[in-house]
Amino acid sequence: MPKRLIGLVLVLPALAVILLLFIVPLAASVVGAFEEKNSYGLGNFTKAFELYRSDVMFTVMIVSLSTVLIGLFSIAIGGYLTLGENPRAVAILRWLYRWPMFIPFIVVGQVLRTFLAKNGLMNNMLVGAGIITPLQAASFLDWRGIVIAFVWKQTPFVTLLVAGAMASVDRGTIEAARNLGASRLRILLEILVPQVTTTLMVGLVLSFVTMMSVLSVPLMINAQSPTMITADIAFRINAYGDYGVANALGLISLAVTACVAWFYLRHSMKERA
Amino acid sequence: MSTAAIPETNAPGFRLDLWWIPRAIVLGLIAFAIFGPLTNLLLWTVAEKWYFPHTLPLEYGFSYWGRVFSPRGNAMESLTNSILVASLTVVVSLALAIPAGYALARLRLPFRAAILFAFLIPQAFPNLPVYVNIARLFYEIGLNGTIAGVVLVHATHGLVYAVWIATAAFAAVDAELEQAARSIGAGALRAFREVTLPLAAPGLLASAIFVFLESLDEFTGSYFVGAPDVNMLPLLLYTAGAGGNYQVASITALLLLIPSVGFMLVVERFLKSDVLSKVGH
Amino acid sequence: MKRLLQAMLVLGLAASPANAAELTVITAGDQNMVDYINEYLAPLFEEQNPGNTVRAVGTGPGDAGSQKILERFEAQKKAGAEKWDTDVAVVHEKFAGPMIEGGYLEAYRDRIATGKMVTRANADMALGAKVTGYVMPMFNSQTAIAYNPALVSNPPKSYEALAAWAKEHPKQFGYNGIKGGASGVSFVMGWIYAFGDDADKLMNGPFDKAETAKWDSAFASLGEFTQNATLTPGNAGTLDLLSRGEIAMGPVWVDMFYSWQANGQLPPDFKLFLPAPGMPGQPMHYVIPANAPNKELAEKFVELATSPKVQAEGIVKRFNWYPGIDAEHVKAELDEATWNKLFVDITPEDLAKYGKPFPIAPYNNAILEAYERQATN
Question: Where is the ABC transmembrane type-1 domain (chain A) (predicted)?
Answer without folding.
Answer: 56-264
